[in-house]
């Protein structure tokens, strides 16, 4: 009867812990074994040791919106407008201005092409891009495929967060350049790729991470995540999806550790209880034996 109670208590602890771990994992993320530090080539265990302690999956600056994790609810975003009239999240105003200022000081003048977009605007953009591909003679399937490579479906673009900006340098726009991979060949794009992390921005869709992000290389799309996180991702060569996978893995390991400590403690208590009971039984036994005369 007693054993049954103990087993039931342990079962409840296990169920509770699984539920808790499960509740934390709200994003669909790459498997921890697939996380690849393209720059430092460290494995996930080494990365976990170096992971910034304050990295928190609930940090609004680390919010993930992608085709696997669409934002089904448009959260209200406090907006501000750039000099070009482009809206973006007011929470990144200071850092974005610092980035633009540092660019100026290095001889690069930038234009913000796009910032915050609502889900409806994204749906319009998706359809406009597809229509223009169809008009250029692509088949329905080809047009859909090409559109999806660069344009997220409605609800699946992180432009909805206001934390993402599309940005081009004057050295590119003055020669008629647009949002194409070739932008990466000019000085302003290389400057952004090298220095944006110092201001908390990451090159969100790098060339070597297309399988993780499901987006083609976009040398113009930058995303604010915060300086420490941006620098970590850049240094090691990690996509936001991989960074979040590391955070979840760390939290899972911590939770498991806590649970096993609780289980250990309970096992020790039970063992002590059992020993006390046994010694009582033995004492009682001795008491019933009549003393030698
Ligand atoms: Zn973009």
UniProtKB/TrEMBL annotation:
The cross-references to InterPro entries, in alphabetical order and at most eight, read:
DD-CPase-like (IPR052179), VanY-like_core_dom (IPR003709), VanY/YodJ_core_dom (IPR058193), Zn_M74/Hedgehog-like (IPR009045)
Q: Which SUPFAM superfamilies match?
A: Hedgehog/DD-peptidase
Domain D-alanyl-D-alanine carboxypeptidase-like core span(s) in chain numbering: 91-227
GO MF: carboxypeptidase activity
Q: Which Gene3D superfamilies match?
A: 3.30.1380.10
GO terms of biological process kind: proteolysis
PANTHER family xrefs: D-ALANYL-D-ALANINE CARBOXYPEPTIDASE, PEPTIDOGLYCAN L-ALANYL-D-GLUTAMATE ENDOPEPTIDASE CWLK
Q: What is this protein called?
A: D-alanyl-D-alanine carboxypeptidase
Report the source organism.
Answer: Facklamia miroungae
